[in-house]
Write a structure and sequence with these properties.
233 residues, four-stranded antiparallel beta sheet, mainly beta
């Protein structure tokens, strides 16, 4: 019997900025039982920002925690042959989400100040995320307004569509959970701004990302999503 969803919501305007990464940086975060996956011959790490809407925890809306933003740093793995995502750190603007995720599922959530906007200008759609102390960090992208579903053999599909999320239990073992959503249509990104203090937010080992050239940028339209509870892998 399929367990009930832990979380349901809508994810909108999912902006992903992806970089090549050294495997040695990812290994400390690797849950036991998973293997680092590669895209075009290299491990990848992505900073991903998006909007939660109509959020429910076990079917119940939590006051002041229904609509909010998330920004996470993630990398890509395989578990039992399935493609999956592992989070290095997840920032949200609502404390109840962080508390439940950390205590119940050992997920690396933190609460941080953030502000997100969806904009339109000169025929383009824009997303802007400001976050951290004094909202000094910034992710911003401008893209064509009409999204297109990516081909299954494309890098964009590889980055935006996965069967599983994988966390690490307190014993180090992988704990997997299903993240269900349709294949997302993607906007073609024309302009990007990344002004993020990676070292302060994620640790000094990620300083290089501040000056690195992204390998891929995706902006997904988004959809309703459903996440089932984590289970031992």
């Amino acid at each position: 019997m399929t367990p009930p969803a832990f979380l349901t919501a809508e994810w909108h305007h999912v902006l992903g900025v992806t970089y090549a990464a050294d495997e040695a940086l990812l290994e400390p975060h690797l849950p036991r039982g998973t293997q680092i996956d590669v895209l075009e011959g290299s491990p990848r790490v992505s900073i991903v920002a998006f909007h939660f809407r109509h959020t429910r925890l076990r079917g119940v809306p939590i006051p002041l925690h229904v609509n909010f933003g998330e920004i996470n740093l993630r990398f890509y793995v395989r578990l039992h042959g399935q493609r999956a995502v592992v989070f290095i750190r997840e920032f949200v603007s609502r404390p109840a989400i962080s508390i439940v995720a950390r205590l119940a599922y050992n997920e690396p959530y933190r609460t941080i100040r953030m502000r997100g906007e969806v904009l339109e200008h000169e025929g383009l759609i824009g997303v802007r995320h400001r976050f951290g102390p004094r909202l000094r960090n910034r992710l911003e992208a401008w893209a064509d307004p009409q999204p297109v579903v990516p081909a299954e053999d494309s890098a964009a599909y590889w980055l935006t569509h996965h069967a599983l999320g994988v966390g690490r239990g307190r014993d180090g073992r992988a704990r997997s959970y299903d993240v269900e959503h349709p294949v997302w249509a993607l906007h073609d990104v024309r302009n990007l701004r990344v002004d993020v203090d990676f070292a302060t937010l994620y640790g000094p080992q990620w300083t290089y990302l501040a000056d690195a050239e992204p390998s891929h940028v995706t902006l997904a339209e988004g959809s309703p999503i459903s996440i089932t509870p984590a289970v031992d892998a």
